[in-house]
Amino acid sequence: MKKLCLLALTAVMFALPAFAKVKKEPVLESGKVYIMYLKSCPMCGKAMEYIDKNYLTYPNVVRADLDTDDGKVLLNLCRQKFGVNKVIVPMVCAGDEYFMGWSQNAEKKFDEMVNASPK
Fold first, then answer.
1. Would you say the pTM of this structure is higher than 0.90?
2. Which DSSP string do the residues of 46-88 spell out, in sequence order?
3. Hey, how many other C-beta atoms are within 10 angstroms of the C-beta on 2?
């Protein structure tokens, strides 16, 4: 009986990882525009206000809060992809392009990047 219980317990222990939710690491997907921002940053606030007003329902626009682990991973992926050492937020990257900071020129550049990406 002990062997049977031990066998059943062992089977359950090996089966549990199959039912556990596995968290996927974020990746930079082609066709998406990533905006990395900090909630406490005034320039980021202006960027997010513009993006939410104009692109709230666009599935190809990905918002990455840098106060989260996923946001930090995406920022590092973007930094590595473009060889950026010093980051200024917000940082936007898509395809083979990126820019940092926010202004009216940034709004135009963001629009171009979104329109170049499939929706």
1. no
2. HHHHHHHHHHTT-TTEEEEETTSHHHHHHHHHHHHHHT-SS--
3. 6
